[in-house]
Amino acid sequence: MQNDIYYKYRSLENFERFIDILVNERFYAASYKDLNDIMEGLYIDLGLKPEVSREIKSSKENYKICSFSKINNDSLLWAHYADGCKGVCIGCKITDLNVSIGNVEYKGLAVIENCFQTNITAIEILLHKEETWKYEKEVRVLTNNGEKYVKVKIKEIIFGKRITPERKKLIKDICKKILPDVKFKG
């Protein structure tokens, strides 16, 4: 999975953050509590001891999550995450070796009956979402020990259908100087 290309839909409203992505070839990873799904990090507990539940909670809090998609052409993703097609979709490879990468399972909350290793259980929980989100075809990159960024190699930038010609030209000009191998689409 490390060699696959993953896609990040981005609004350009915070242009400074977008420039940081280009210059440093990295994406911000957030706590599960800061993600947009209110069900993040929840699970069905089938009788765990309270101390085990506390250890799982602590382990979940050590991870930071950066979400990507396997696809670059979904209308809902463009609408929700790329400012209604005024943004971009960045195709990249994960170069960070100190991360866990996993496909999200859209089976609802994880059901936890036993827990032998809290860090593995935490990852299992963080890779579950409600079926409603299935259209995202999400891949999650999880950092540990509070690391807030995921290092990547940017391969392509796909422009939204509503991006202004001026902004498109500016992004191409910036990339020609700092990321000359990046391909453009759209």
Number of helices: 5
- What number of structural domains do the residues give? 1
What do the pLDDT scores average to?
95
Report the sheet-strand fraction: 25-35%
Oligomeric state of this protein? single chain
Radius of gyration computed on alpha carbons: 18 Å
**Could you name the ranges where pLDDT drops below 50 across 5 or more consecutive residues?**
none
Shape field: elongated
Quantity of strands, as a count: 10
Question: Which structural class matches the secondary elements?
Answer: alpha+beta
Share of helix, binned = 25-40%
Tell me the major beta sheet.
5 strands, mixed
Describe what is shown at a glance.
This protein is an alpha+beta fold and 186 residues long. It has helices at 15-24, 50-62, 75-81, 118-126, 165-178; strands spanning 6-10, 26-28, 43-45, 64-69, 88-94, 100-103, 110-112, 138-143, 149-159, 183-185. The protein has five helices and ten strands, in the order E-H-E-E-H-E-H-E-E-E-H-E-E-H-E.
Structure explained in plain terms:
The chain is of the alpha+beta class and 186 residues long. The protein has one domain (6-185). It has helices at residues 15-24, 50-62, 75-81, 118-126, 165-178; strands at 6-10, 26-28, 43-45, 64-69, 88-94, 100-103, 110-112, 138-143, 149-159, 183-185. α5 links the parallel β9 (149-159) and β10. It is elongated, with a radius of gyration of 18 Å.
Topology:
Blueprint: E1 6-10, H1 15-24, E2 26-28, E3 43-45, H2 50-62, E4 64-69, H3 75-81, E5 88-94, E6 100-103, E7 110-112, H4 118-126, E8 138-143, E9 149-159, H5 165-178, E10 183-185
